[in-house]
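Researcher: Quick sanity check before group meeting.
Model: Go ahead. Protein one:
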Amino acid sequence: MREYIGGKFSGERAMFAAEASVFTDCIFEDGESPLKHSKDLRLYNDSFKWKYPLWYSNNITAKNCTFFENARAGVWYTNNISVEDTMYIAPKGFRRCGGLTLKNVTFPNASETLWQCKNVKMEKISAKGDYLAMNCENMEIDGLELVGNYCFDGAKNVTVRNSKLISKDAFWNSENITAENCVISGEYLGWNSKKLTLISCTIESLQGLCFIEDLKLVNCKLINTTLAFEYSTVDADIVGTVDSVKNPSGGIIRADGIDELILERDRVDVSKTKIEIKMNGKNAG
């Protein structure tokens, strides 16, 4: 492989269509699309300071790199890319990518990042910004810390473990989502989704978990959660008390207590929902 060490590159398409190369301690300065249409690259300790550095690329490994704020829309239409131990400051990163692996990456400005990507693995990720992972498919996530609204809108086939999501409108319009051992805080969680499963999660949400088809909760806590389950079909096993439940469409809800239960017969068929209040680990009926 060809090696570039300590290089400084500027101008549009500075290393256009580079192949089978290693870039170490290099700086890509002003100039759009420096590595557009590249393939089989290894990037170590490199700095990207301008727009569109990796578009239409294939087989990329990046470690200990920095994507500065002006490296906007940095990685689009790229397949088989691994990014590790990297500071990704620029917004709108990673669009329509396939075979994407992110490990120990920090996104301080993750606005509109990870859109329409497929086959994504994420581990130890910190992100701040709205609309993370819109319309993504086939994601495996472990250790995501996110502060940002509207995450995973329209996503499909996603598993999130050991994560903390501070996010209004998380998982809207999504399908086949599983969150396990997570903390999720934000209004209107999961609206208009299908096959949403929450396992051993702590949830805080105003009017959350509504308008969902096939909602399942296993060993979950719902703290400060009000007006839950409206027009949802639900199978819920809840640890502790729920502040209020309103008009579920059907299913079963098991909890230690429900402070306010709203069942409006002119809105839903109340016979389709079973409520079980647990006492000392047993169902009271």
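Researcher: Fine. The other one?
Model: Protein two, sequence then structure:
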Amino acid sequence: MLSDLTLGARPKGRTALAARWIVAHRDGGHRLLENGEIVIEEDRILHVGPRFEGEVARRVDLGEVLISPGLIDLDALSDLDTTTLGVDCGPAWAKGRVWPESYLSRGPYEMYTPEELAFQKRFSFAQLLCNGITSALPIASLFYREWGESVAEFEAAAEAAGALGLRVWLGPAYRSGGMVCTAPGILEPRFDEARGLAGLNDAIHFITAQSGRFGGLVQGMLAPDRVETCTQDLLSRTMAAAADLDVPVRLHMAQGQMERDTVHSLHGTTAPQWMAGFGALSPRLIAPHATYATDDDLRLYADHGVTVAHCPLVFARSGAMLRSFGKLRRMGINIGMGTDTAPPDMVLNMAVGVMMARMAGDSIHDAAPEHMLDAATLGGAAALGRPDLGRLEPGAKADIAIFDMQDTLMAPRVDPVRTLILGATGRVTRAVFVDGRLSMREGQVAGIDMAAARTRAQAQFDGLRDKYPDRTWGHPPVDEIFPPAYPPLE
């Protein structure tokens, strides 16, 4: 039984996992194997197929489960999320999502302590594992930061990933500027080029020092913040550094009207077209979210091998969508998946992805559930240049997600993949192996008490919420920024 394995450890010798269904990989694509077995040894997959005839140290019959490649999250929230709280409390400029002029003049400050910043990474990493995510590129908001992210907090993040057993691509976010609210509804960019370049330099030193730690679980990533907060020099140097370091770059763009208006006022075009003009589009680039991408933007993505990180749930909450998933696939654009919200439920994201794509006009075939799973596995692996991830085949990394297909609230079952994506959530994730290590089992992650962490996370977030008036135009009280859904009963 899984309970016989040590949580947080890699089993010694060969371990055979038998299951009703396995998403195996063969001939360049996923294939559904029924009543099969997967054998792992150390950090690798040794066998996927019928019962393994070789010697094994143990056999675990998992029963009615679906064994899938571990999910890859290209935009994984490593934050105590404010977006969920604020979606119905707009507009953003009036609700603490953009700095007011008065706050900037007084001087932005860190609203979390170093210990709190380290804790939120650790807590969010554990949540990712509980949702079947084995590889993640973390992201956090800069709205409550003094400017960018620090090397110290990402050193703590690397330690957390190693301790919990999550595969990560890390790099502190940096920027040359930020948006400032100068009057109700009026947003203007303010730039500090030197500060942006210093942030890039810090990120390069971090990657040099940390990449490859914990047996390769920790890798580097360059993470300039939203495109409208970056200058041409910063992005040009970022792409050059990425080539030297052989790391991916993640940059949010083509994702909103404010960005489109700002970039057009600064550069006279869209963000992808602006970047193409100075040679900053490349296969290294991962670009969430493309919800505001024009046809010309998408053609540039296709021509330059840019990956779109698709995060349907966070946009669906506000009524926005990618137009469309099927269109990007037909254009040959690589699509990976991200969660970018809390909880980081990739299964639910895939379900919403199917629904929103069909609402956008995609056919049932164009927006099939299996295409979303391809994006969450093979698409993410392609974006990272890691053909040993996102698939279950001999020689691939032993990154595995196990989903319970006999959950009492998920019946009847037709096809296991369709049933998982359209009839479940990430809460049916039973166990996760990362690099051959049992990193999560039945909602428990070695090295962290999830119940106690949940209580701490709420208290920490409540403290952040209390500081919202400092960074909100007009400095209204908290209950005015975030009014209750129903009026209080007097």
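Researcher: One line on it for the slide.
Model: The radius of gyration is 22 Å.
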